[in-house]
Amino acid sequence: MRALLSKAPGGPETLVLDEVADPVAGPGQVVVAVKACSINFPDVLIIEDKYQFKPERPFAPGGEIAGVVDSVGEGVTEWSVGDRVIGMVGHGGLVEKVVVEAGKLYALPEGRSFAEGAALILTYGTTIHALLDRGHLGEGQTLLVLGAAGGVGLAAIELGKAFGAKVVAAVSSEEKAAVAKDAGADETIVYARAPFDRDQSKALAEQFKAAGGKAGYDVIYDPVGGDYAEPALRSIGWEGRYLVVGFPAGIPKLPLNLTLLKSCDVCGVFWGAFAARDPKANAAHIDRLFRLWKDGKIAPRVTETFAFEDGGKAIAKMAARAAIGKLVVTVAE
Length: 333
What we know:
Blueprint: E1 2-5, E2 16-19, E3 29-39, H1 41-46, E4 64-72, E5 84-88, E6 97-101, E7 105-107, H2 114-118, H3 121-134, E8 142-145, H4 151-162, E9 166-171, H5 174-182, E10 187-190, H6 198-212, E11 217-222, H7 229-233, E12 236-244, H8 257-262, E13 265-268, H9 271-277, H10 279-294, E14 302-307, H11 311-319, E15 326-330
Parallel strand pairs: 8-9, 8-11, 9-10, 11-12, 12-13, 14-15
Antiparallel strand pairs: 1-2, 3-4, 3-6, 3-15, 4-5, 5-7
Helix pairs in contact: 3-4, 3-10, 9-10
């Protein structure tokens, strides 16, 4: 079978499309013929050896797949050959076939495309955990979403509205603001591109405060980091929750006196570890996501698809922070 492999640390241009042996399902495992694999920011980091996990090379990036069950291992009764499934694999998804633990797969609903299915779990799974478990977002509260036109950002807008919050979406262009508005944002903020000097940082904080109102934000969802973090934190409300989701703009250093002045919490969001430590709670979240998807309250926004051999281009676009919505690689028709 074909696989898009990382054989040495580096950028997307180092990926090589190569032939490897077909995988075999062991006990409790399923081989999935991959149809689509979505691209997320961890794919940028993992091939550069900058992610929390460093797989042994050669490996394929791609943590989120959709496809068809090709074969099942001993003891697997819940899946049959031909079933349409979606699942998280961590890495290894940019291949024609991949082995997945049977319990980590979900049925792809009828009428939903493989591209949509591949774009669901990571962004919405991260976000529902962030907003409910870490942010304790409640009806009538105010939510600020940074990087709001990306995959997790759009998920935060949709879920924030589904949970009854007022959502302010912060983005870097008018085009992205239109996408955020279409996803349900009540208000949008267009901010400048970092880096910021002291005056620019102060001006951005005032921009955030103006949209948040006198009381400030109950929850801030930050999948961006960098120079955007401190101005956002300055706009948080009393006992607000600042959710640390990712750092494509760099790892920020926050002045902790702000947490004292606002009596606020800075909360890390590590969905993968949460899912591993509390699989029952995670499964309940995923079930809720499927219900919201069925009811039309959330919908993965696949804005661009790439051929298998162009998977590196999708990762390059993600690295350049040029993606709007979800990017998906079509592995097979």
